[in-house]
Design a protein that fits this description.
The chain is an alpha/beta fold and 324 residues long. Helix content is 43%, strand content 12%. It has 13 helices and nine strands. Bound molecules: zinc ion (ZN). Zinc ion binds next to loops.
C-alpha cells in the first residue's frame, strides 16, 4: 500500500496524487541508479589501496575525499532516483560487497540491507557503522519497512556527527592500510579545510538563531536545525507521524496549516525527496501565508557537487530565508 509520505524523486508533473498516479511514478524509476565506483591509484598510493563499499551516496563522497588515491570506493545507492528508505538491493548490488575490505554503513536502521550483505561475505570485511560511531543507537532495527523507527537516522545532517564520522573513517582506513596512513592524514586535513565554508555557515546561522523558528515536512533536517539552535514549531502530532512515515491525521495536518497561517514558523523546511499530497499542501499553505520555503533533500541531487557544496548551498538558502 502506497502512503503519501513515501519518498521518491519528483516526477516533472505530479498531479494531485491519486493512488494510480503514485503507482505509475514508482514504476518509472526502475532503471535509475546502480552502484558507482571511483577507483584508487595503486601507483600514487604509498600503501595498499583499500576496497571500500559505501551503502549510500550521502557518505560516498566523504569516503572518496578521505580515501584519496588509497581507496577504491563503490557507492551502492548513488542516485537520488533511488529511495534509500525502500531500497531492495539487486544481485549486482550484493556482488559489489564480495571484494570489499571495508563496508561503510550509515546505520541506525537506515541501510540494514547493507549490513546483511556485509555479513554474507567471506572473508568478512571490516564494517564501520557511522551511527554507532556517533552514538545514535539503532533501537532494534526499528521498522524494517520504513527505516525511521524511533531514532532519526539522518546523521549526515549533524555537523558534529559528520566530523566524528570522518575521524573514524580516517582511523579505519589507516588501520586497514597502515603504509598509507600519511596519505589518509593528508586527505583528512584537506577535507577539514574543505569543511570550513560549511562550518562558517553553521556558525553564522547559530549567531542569528535566537528566537527563530522552523517547521518541517519531515525529520531529515532535524539534526542541523538543532545544531543551529532553531526552535521546532512543527505540530507534535504531525511530527510523530512524519517521522514514522505514517499518514498524519486530518487534525494534525490542519494544525500544521493553521500554524503556518498564523505565522508561527519563520521558515518551512521542505524535503524535496518526500513526494505526496501532504507536503505539497503544506508548501502551498506556507506560500500563501508568505512563509519562506527552504528546500532540503535526503541525499545530494546529482548536480549538487560534493557533500560540502550540497550542504553549503542548502544552508545559504536557509540563511537567506531567515533574513528575508
Ligand atoms: Zn529519510
Amino acid at each position: 500500500m502506497e502512503t503519501m509520505m513515501r519518498r521518491r524523486p519528483r516526477p516533472a508533473a505530479l498531479a494531485l496524487a491519486g493512488a494510480a498516479t503514485l503507482a505509475l511514478a514508482a514504476c518509472g524509476n526502475a532503471d535509475a541508479g546502480g552502484p558507482s565506483t571511483s577507483a584508487g591509484d595503486t601507483d600514487a598510493c604509498p600503501g595498499e589501496v583499500v576496497d571500500v563499499v559505501v551503502s549510500v551516496g550521502q557518505w560516498g563522497d566523504v569516503v572518496e575525499a578521505l580515501g584519496g588515491d588509497c581507496a577504491s570506493v563503490t557507492t551502492v545507492i548513488s542516485s537520488t532516483a533511488v529511495d534509500p528508505h525502500d531500497f531492495e538491493p539487486t544481485t549486482g548490488d550484493i556482488a559489489a560487497f564480495q571484494e570489499a575490505e571495508l563496508v561503510v554503513l550509515n546505520g541506525a536502521g537506515y541501510d540494514h540491507w547493507a549490513e546483511d550483505a556485509a555479513t554474507g561475505v567471506d572473508p568478512a570485511p571490516a564494517v564501520l557503522d557511522l551511527a554507532d560511531v556517533v552514538g545514535v543507537e539503532t533501537g532494534e532495527h526499528a521498522d524494517e519497512e520504513h527505516g525511521h523507527g524511533e531514532v532519526n537516522p539522518h546523521i549526515w545532517y549533524s555537523p558534529e556527527y559528520v566530523q566524528q564520522a570522518a575521524e573514524a573513517l580516517t582511523a579505519e582506513l589507516s588501520e586497514l592500510s597502515p603504509d598509507a596512513a600519511d596519505h589518509f592524514a593528508e586527505r583528512a586535513a584537506a577535507w577539514e579545510e574543505e569543511l570550513t565554508p560549511y562550518l562558517t555557515e553553521v556558525e553564522s546561522l547559530q549567531a542569528g538563531a535566537d528566537g527563530r523558528t522552523f517547521a518541517a515536512t519531515e525529520s531529515v533536517f532535524e539534526y542541523m536545525a538543532e545544531a543551529i539552535g532553531l526552535t521546532d514549531v512543527t505540530p507534535e502530532g504531525y511530527r510523530e507521524s512524519a517521522s514514522n512515515e505514517a499518514e498524519p491525521a486530518p487534525g494534525d495536518l490542519a494544525a500544521f496549516q493553521a500554524a503556518l497561517e498564523a505565522g508561527e514558523a519563520d521558515v518551512l523546511v521542505y524535503n524535496t525527496q518526500t513526494e505526496g499530497g501532504v507536503p505539497e499542501q503544506l508548501r502551498a499553505a506556507a506560500e500563501s501565508a508568505g512563509v519562506p520555503v527552504v528546500e532540503v533533500a535526503e541525499s545530494a541531487p546529482d548536480d549538487a557537487g560534493s557533500f560540502v557544496d550540497w550542504q553549503v548551498a542548502q544552508l545559504r538558502a536557509l540563511s537567506a530565508a531567515l533574513q528575508g
